[in-house]
Amino acid sequence: MRAVYRSFAKVNLYLAVCGRRADGFHEIDTAMQTVDLCDRLVCTASSDGELSVACAHPEVPPGAGNLVYRALDLLRAAAGRPRAGMRVEIEKRIPLAAGLGGGSGNAACALVAANRLWQLDWPQARLEPLAAEIGADVTFFLRGGTQRGRGRGERVTPLPALPDSRWVIVKPSYGLETGAVYRRASVSLTSSEAKIRMALDLLAKRDLPGLAAAMFNDLASAAEQMRAELGEVRAWMTTHRVKGAMLTGSGSALFGLIHDPGSTAAMENEGRARGWDVVQVRPTRVGCIEEEA
Predict the structure, then answer these.
(1) Digits of tens for pLDDT over the chain (293 positions)?
(2) Do residues 20 and 97 share a domain?
């Protein structure tokens, strides 16, 4: 059995770093939104017990080093199906080390694909504990849409859906390592509480310009300490009337609300000349979807 899935990226409408946990990770509070920038996963099931993950991108780890492999291995062990096999070919379109959640989204997509192709028919609630074991964002990608993430990001609750809108993502030529950014981050729950309430209120009111203006990311300062050029990217986006112009996740990508969707072509040309990738995106209601045959 074979199926092709689109695995969507995400942006963080806000990201507050609230404290350091005993396990060494950080406590966060964030609003995440899937967008239609996507990877494609070509999944072929077998009964020979073999798992394989391949991608033409040189920086994507193959085989057991990939979160997709771990997701498949965990699922078949939990299901008691040691002979369940899967070959996954990843067509990478989501930039790496960008804060867009490509690897986590791929892992969630693999769980969804294997659940169907292996004919397990597990409800989503049964997949979510496995997702949380794989990585902090994987549970979010099982749900997709607009979700609030707390803890390490794995405790997700639904938020009002983001209205249909146009956003732009700008990815510089370099990536940022998540752990390095978090190690530099300042922790301040008190200063973030009012900003969180404001962002959630504006989202509930479907006030997109207000929400874009209220977006914040407690990792942005740390990221700019590591790469001062991020400030240049943000300023450039502002000159193109992009509202918000905020880091997503731990970066290095920034995103914001587009004033004029037709202006993206000019941004793409200018960005390319600077070595930046520029792409226009729209919100999605799901984390992944199977393509029609």
Answers:
(1) 999 999 999 999 999 998 888 887 889 999 999 999 999 999 999 999 999 999 999 999 999 999 999 999 999 999 999 999 999 999 999 999 999 999 999 999 999 999 999 999 999 999 999 999 999 999 999 999 999 999 999 999 999 999 999 999 999 999 999 999 999 987 765 568 999 999 999 999 999 999 999 999 999 999 999 999 999 999 999 999 999 999 999 999 999 999 888 889 999 999 999 999 999 999 999 999 999 87
(2) yes
Catalytic choice (10, 39, 218, 243): 10
Same structural domain for residues 41 and 8? yes
Among 108, 107, 248, 89, CA closest to 175: 248
Residue 10: CB atoms within 10 A of its CB come to: 28
pTM over 0.90: yes
The reply to whether 164 belongs to the active site is no
- Is 29 catalytic? The answer is no
The residue from 138, 159, 180 where one domain ends is 159
DSSP 28-94: EEEEEEEEEEEEEEEEEEESS--EEEEESSTTSPPGGGSHHHHHHHHHHHHHT-TT-EEEEEEE--S
User: In this structure, is residue 288 part of a structural domain?
Assistant: no
- What is the tally of structural domains in the chain? 2
Cα–Cα distance between 178 and 28 in angstroms, integer?
Answer: 14
State which residues form the domain around 249. 167-281
Rounded distance, CA 28 to CA 189, Å? 9
- Active-site annotation holder among 29, 39, 137, 218: 137
287 domain-assigned: no
